[in-house]
Specification:
Order of helices and strands of chain A: HHHHHHH
Strand content of chain A: under 5%
Number of domains of chain A: 1
Distance between the termini of chain A: 55 Å
Largest sheet of chain B: none
Oligomer: heterodimer
Radius of gyration of chain A: 17 Å
Largest interface: A-B, 24 and 26 residues
Largest sheet of chain A: none
Number of helices of chain A: 7
Radius of gyration of chain B: 19 Å
Structural class of chain B: mainly alpha
Number of domains of chain B: 1
Distance between the termini of chain B: 44 Å
Number of strands of chain A: 0
């Protein structure tokens, strides 16, 4: 597995990333987006300036990869209901008005999977997120049709 | 006398099927390094175990049916069926490869137990038969309805691995490592039911 260094520096970098950064991000879906965004699309390696300076770039890369796998595993294991909740937290915290429709159109969730996961797992994740977006769209439509009394 | 003859003929027929299944690969000898590389590649996706729990769970389909339009719910069920079939193909392929690898190492085993190997062969055929039925159930009735049979197949798989481990420590260890990734964790098994 790429950059899998199980030494103390990696563990320290991992703890650092979890405590200082990931703990402040609300929801696993938002954490997944954040972690995947640190990956270079061409090389598949992760970059984080601060972590690389404190530890080494290799240790930082392994620590981020490890966190990415862990967050992805949690999202794969959760039910559709839980995933919809996660996605709802992400869309609310994002602030943009058309997050759901933009995500349905661009399908950026396809690049959120860790490098090591199989095609089957990636398709499973994509199906779940796509369906979760449909659930959110359905709820939005329902809310427009049946607005709550003031 | 007739009963004994019946068992003998049945055993012979099953043995013949087993021989036919593995004949193709017995032509090509593989060394231990290739075998280990194969097993390592099986383990590369550590999420296979999570998938076996989630794909067959009724809760997701019920939630989607409740929370979306019928067309989205139908598409979700269909795609889950396709994924379940692919998952099953993957598991069958892994078991077949590992069984063939076991046969290769067994041939070099000086303490070979013919009775044990025969029992393992029967167990392998039972697994293949069960998963063939499972394949048909998934196709016809969808993955949610097949959940119980999945558990039964995984129990058979567990027995198969235990027997393989008893018969050949090298293969058994490798297969057990693979099984840990494939099998839903004990706590999750009840969730599939």
């Amino acid at each position: 597995m790429r950059g899998e260094l199980k030494d103390e520096r990696v563990e320290a970098a991992r703890r650092d990333l979890e405590d200082r950064t990931l703990a402040r991000i609300h929801g696993d879906f938002a954490r997944l987006v954040y972690l995947a965004a640190m990956r270079d699309y061409n090389t598949g390696e992760y970059h984080h300036e601060g972590l690389s300076q404190r530890y080494t770039s290799k240790s930082a890369c392994s620590a981020i990869a490890s966190c990415h796998r862990e967050v992805f595993r949690r999202l794969i294991s959760c039910s559709m209901g839980e995933l919809v909740e996660e996605l709802e937290i992400y869309t609310r915290s994002n602030g943009a008005a058309d997050v759901v429709s933009t995500w349905k159109w661009l399908q950026p969730f396809k690049v959120l999977v860790p490098l090591e996961c199989s095609a089957l797992t990636a398709r499973f994740f994509a199906l779940n997120v796509r369906t979760a977006l449909e659930v959110l769209t359905f709820r939005q439509r329902r809310a427009v049709q049946n607005p709550l009394p003031a | 006398m007739n009963l004994e003859l019946y068992f003998l003929v049945s055993a012979g027929a099953l043995l013949l099927i087993a021989v036919l299944l593995i004949r193709e690969d017995l032509r090509h000898r593989q060394d231990q390094d290739t075998f280990r590389a194969e097993v390592a590649s099986f383990n590369s996706d550590s999420l296979a175990g999570e998938l076996s729990v989630r794909i067959f769970r009724a809760e997701d389909s019920e939630f989607v049916a409740r929370e979306t339009s019928p067309s989205v719910a139908r598409a979700f069920r269909q795609e889950r069926t396709v994924l379940a079939i692919e998952w099953l193909r993957g598991v069958r392929g892994q078991v077949s490869r590992l069984f063939r690898s076991h046969l290769k190492t067994a041939r070099l085993n000086p303490d070979l137990s013919p009775v044990g190997e025969l029992r393992l062969g029967f167990q392998f055929l039972a697994f293949q038969l069960t998963t063939s039925i499972l394949y048909a159930v998934i196709r016809i009735r969808g993955p949610v309805r097949a959940a119980r049979l999945v558990l039964f197949s995984l129990d058979l798989y567990e027995k198969l691995l235990k027997m393989a481990k008893d018969l050949s420590p090298i293969t058994g260890t490798a297969v057990s490592a693979e099984f840990l990734e494939l099998s839903p964790r004990a706590g999750n098994r009840s969730a599939v039911r």
